[in-house]
Amino acid sequence: MKYIEKLQYITHDIPHLTHIEQVQNACEAGAKWIQYRCLSKADDELLKDINAIAEICDDWGTTLIVTNHIHLNGKADIQGFHIEDMTADFIALRKQVGEDITLGGSANTVENLIRLANEGVDYAGLGPFSTTETKPNDFPLLGIDGYTTAVIKLKELNITLPILAVGGIKIYDVEALMQTGIYGIAVSGSINFADDFIEAYQDFYEAVKV
How far apart are CA 8 and CA 34, in angstroms? Predict the structure, then answer.
C-alpha cells in the first residue's frame, strides 16, 4: 500500500506567491505532500515549474503530486497525479503510468468513491466540504454529514479507500471532520491567504494529527 499523507497541501494560482514560493514555504513548514495544481500554463512552463518544485521536494523528502497533466509522466521527478475529472477511466490511466505512480481522484458522491475504489486509485479527494474560492464549482456542498455518510457506506461495503476532505476547510472544521472517520484533509486557501503561512500550515498539521 502506498504512502498517503494525512495533510495534503495544494498550490494555486494566486497573485502574491508563485507556485514555487508556495512549495518552498510549505516544505519549510514541514509539508510532506505537495499537490501542484496549475491549470493556466503550457507544458514548457509547467515543466519549468515542476522541475524547480521537484528539487525543493527532494531536498525536504516531500512527495510531489501533479493535478491532471498526466501526459507529463516520466518527464520530471513526479511521484503521482491527482485527476479532477470524475469521469476519468482510472483503469486506463493506471496502465498508462504503471503501478509505482500514485493516482488520486476527485469525488463528490459515494457512487464516485465506489467507482474510484473499484478502478484502483490510491486515495480520493471528496468535496467540496464548504464554499471555496480556490476551485469554484457547482457540486453540492457535503458538510460534516456528507463525510459521515460516505465513511459509513464504504465500511458497509468493505471498501478500504483513504478519503481526504477538500474544499473550503478552515482550521476550526478539522476536528469535526476527522471525527467522521476520514483519512485526512487537503488544504489550499486557508494556508495561502493566512497572515502567517508557516504557522497556518503547522496549525492544520497539529489538528489533523489529533
Answer: 6
132: Cβ contacts below 8 Å, ≥ 6 apart = 167, 168, 189
Cβ proximity of 11 and 23 under 8 Å: yes
- Residue-wise pLDDT for 7-24, tens only, equals 999 999 999 999 999 999
Q: How many CA atoms lie within 13 Å of 89's alpha carbon, on the beta-carbon side?
A: 4
65: left (phi over 0), alpha (psi -120 to 50) or beta: beta
Q: Is the pTM of this model over 0.70?
A: yes
Q: Can you read off the three cell numbers belonging to residue 94?
A: 493506471
Strands 102-107 and 123-126: parallel
pLDDT digits (tens, 9 = 90+) for 79-101: 999 999 999 999 999 999 999 99
Residue-range domains of the chain with CATH: 7-209 (3.20.20.70)
- Residue 100: per-residue pLDDT: 96
| Cβ 153 vs Cβ 182: under 8 Å | no
pLDDT at 132 over 80: no
Chain length of the chain = 210
